């Protein structure tokens, strides 16, 4: 059965010294330490250690053979978004990252699909780069962060970007980053364990309550990590909408539960009971296999959670590839 992993991250094997290129710090530098190993550093401090499967397509394909993944959807590592930087510098970095992803896809068109990144802090630049991603690089869409500096995804500055994504037919993948409340979570990896699910729920609620999904019915947007905390708290969110419409229904008159059929999420929930709940809540047609490859908080064996959850063949097929193909707007025979 065709297996498409919609949530995988990739980096180029090397890139210029961005501090020297732009004249200020805060950017990620890649330092190869030994064969097959490297460190991502920010202003001299280690952000993350990575292996060659983060930059080497051949290493990825070898591991895909072991796990049975036929297709990976490639997107950058969120720390590379760089929304805090000068827009022209973020654009330059995005173009570098997008050209690399496009090259990997071009070399292995039946094994990889690409998502670009854009300088969202400047919506017009973001739209122009998204056009380049879709029209010139032939990527399937873009990956964006759960917020852009002080803008949540309901901010009016960002609506033209979503409007352009709908017009271009670009899939949008929302990934949490720069987690809220991280200053209060200095220990125990809590920004990743607590902050990320909250970030994703904030992003979903922002788009729903602002009416973004209502105004753009053709927008295909997916959220990482099973939608974060949103599915588990939809009851509370709906109740709030009902009892305080004066606070919740100011920009969209519809019950937030109505939009469960308008968003996609990946399957990365780590627990078969949660996966079954997600299917019951949203339907298998809204859920796509996503592993967060190749990072440790991801699924070590992509697709195992789905395949071991005791689901029928039709549901398995939908989760393993059907929803991904719909979200990406790609025909199944592209990978035949």
Could you describe the 3D structure shown?
The chain is α/β, with parallel strands linked by helices and 336 residues long. The chain has a single domain (4-10, 54-335), classed as Metal-dependent hydrolases (TIM Barrel, Alpha-Beta Barrel), CATH 3.20.20. Helices cover 40% and strands 17% of the residues. It is built from twelve helices and 13 strands. The protein has helices spanning 18-22, 57-67, 87-107, 123-135, 159-168, 190-209, 212-215, 230-243, 245-248, 272-282, 304-307, 313-328, and strands at residues 4-9, 28-34, 37-42, 45-51, 71-75, 112-116, 141-145, 147-148, 151-152, 171-175, 221-223, 264-266, 287-288. The strands form three sheets. Strands 1-5-6-7-10-11-12-13 form an eight-stranded parallel sheet. It has a three-stranded antiparallel sheet with strand order 2-3-4, with no helix packed on it. A two-stranded antiparallel sheet has the order 8-9. It is globular and about 55 Å long. The protein starts with a strand and ends in an 8-residue tail after the last helix.
